[in-house]
Specification:
It comes from Clostridium aestuarii. By secondary structure, the protein is α/β, with parallel strands linked by helices. It has eleven helices and six strands. The strands form two sheets. Strands 1-2-3 form a three-stranded mixed beta sheet, covered by helices on one side. Strands 4-5-6 form a three-stranded mixed beta sheet, with helices on one face.
């Protein structure tokens, strides 16, 4: 496979993708290949477009030129994203990679708008297309080149977890579709006299605009703070729960500061009757080992929980059954019973889903309804409930 050959011959220690230098080298390689490929395609298509007088072919040529500029921005993005952390940016500059992807997306959109104008102008002021077999063959060759470039960017993007390169792969794939429509317009022009390349040029423009919109969405989401990868969340939970005396976790929050730069914080439920020194050693060990294994900066807060008291166990099970009546409640945690004698307080947090558009009044009503249900079983218990949301 050509992609693997290029990686193995031009990237030193290419398997060590967690090394920032190696990751940077992957970005440079993808950008350089993109610049060379797109410049060659631009020159070929521009020559063809001028020779056969096709606006669709010319538009597709300048789309390739914008892709070459995009590759330059990709290289700059990787270079700046690799800058070490400083006082103003303690978690590094990794998000610059997302910003570079956003710039590329806007460039693609701009090209799409310009080509739409050119195509409409061709429809209003038609011109004859001169069909030649050689230009058609060259367009078909360029399609094969773009298919490979899309697969190459996708391969590297997946390998180093780069949304910018995966977006470039999608952009290249859209170019395959647009170039295919251009080839079709060239072929049909042999038998059709009306300005079909103008109409197909509009289709090409729509593909470019759609690609640009998709790229904007994919690159802006991590900047806005999108939900973390479910597989990563599952793996993180599994690793934490594998440690002795950590019975459950909640309040997991993951912040993304760029590819390979994540910070996670969570609460771990531990038995309350174990030495603080001992449980602290376990928590400290989990933080260090999981951080290193999953390449995340992990902070764990420990919540002591009493799981040996019969009253707590029985009441907790009863509350669990009660909460099943409320569809908006996904889970609950930090369950405690506070007080002496007949009257006691139940303290716990309930987690509601993102589809619940709760305002403060809705939260008050939910707490009231939960309290009401609990008092049917335990009139002397008063539930002090905190409403939580999931962040993963």
């Amino acid at each position: 496979m050509l992609s693997k050959f290029l990686v193995s011959h031009f990237i030193k220690n290419h398997e060590n993708i967690n090394d920032n230098k190696v990751r940077e080298a992957y970005g440079y390689l993808a950008g350089t290949i993109g610049i060379i490929s797109n410049l060659i395609l631009f020159l070929i298509k521009l020559f063809i477009g001028l020779m056969v007088k096709s606006i669709a072919v010319t538009a597709d040529a300048f789309n390739n030129l914008s892709d070459a500029l995009s590759s330059i921005i990709t290289i700059l993005g990787f270079k700046l994203a690799a800058k070490p952390a400083d006082k103003e940016h303690p978690f590094g500059h990794g998000r610059i990679e997302y910003i570079s992807g956003l710039i590329i997306a806007f460039m693609v959109m701009l090209v799409g708008f310009e080509f739409t104008k050119s195509s409409v102008n061709r429809i209003i002021h038609p011109g004859k297309i001169n069909f030649h077999l050689v230009p058609l063959i060259l367009i078909l060759i360029s399609i094969l080149a773009k298919i490979w470039l899309s697969l190459f960017n996708k391969y590297i993007g997946k390998k180093i977890n780069s949304s910018a390169l995966e977006a470039s792969s999608l952009d290249a794939l859209s170019d395959v579709i647009s170039s295919s429509t251009v080839a079709l317009s060239l072929l049909l022009s042999k038998w059709i006299s009306f300005p079909i390349d103008g109409y197909i040029g509009i289709l090409v423009s729509l593909f470019i605009l759609h690609s640009g919109f998709s790229l904007i969405k994919d690159t802006i989401n991590p900047l806005l703070g999108e939900a973390p990868n479910p597989e990563f969340v599952k793996k993180l939970k599994s690793e934490i729960l594998s440690y002795e005396h950590i019975n459950d976790i909640h309040d997991l929050i993951i912040h993304n500061y760029g590819p390979g730069r994540c910070m996670a914080s969570l609460h771990a439920e531990v038995p309350c009757d174990i030495s603080i020194v001992k449980i602290h050693e376990i928590i400290d060990k989990a933080e260090k080992e999981v951080s290193k294994k999953l390449h995340v900066f992990l902070v764990i807060h420990m919540d002591p929980v009493n799981n040996n008291d019969d009253e707590i166990i029985t009441t907790k099970n009863e509350v669990s059954n009660i909460l099943k009546k409320f569809d908006e409640v996904k889970s609950f945690h930090d369950f405690r019973i506070v007080g002496e004698g007949q009257y006691k307080n139940l303290l716990f947090d309930v987690v509601i889903g993102f589809n619940c558009n709760f305002n403060e009044k809705d939260k008050e009503n939910l707490v009231y309804d939960i309290n009401k249900e609990i008092k049917k079983f335990h009139p002397n218990y008063n539930a002090l409930v905190t409403i939580d949301r999931e962040y993963v």
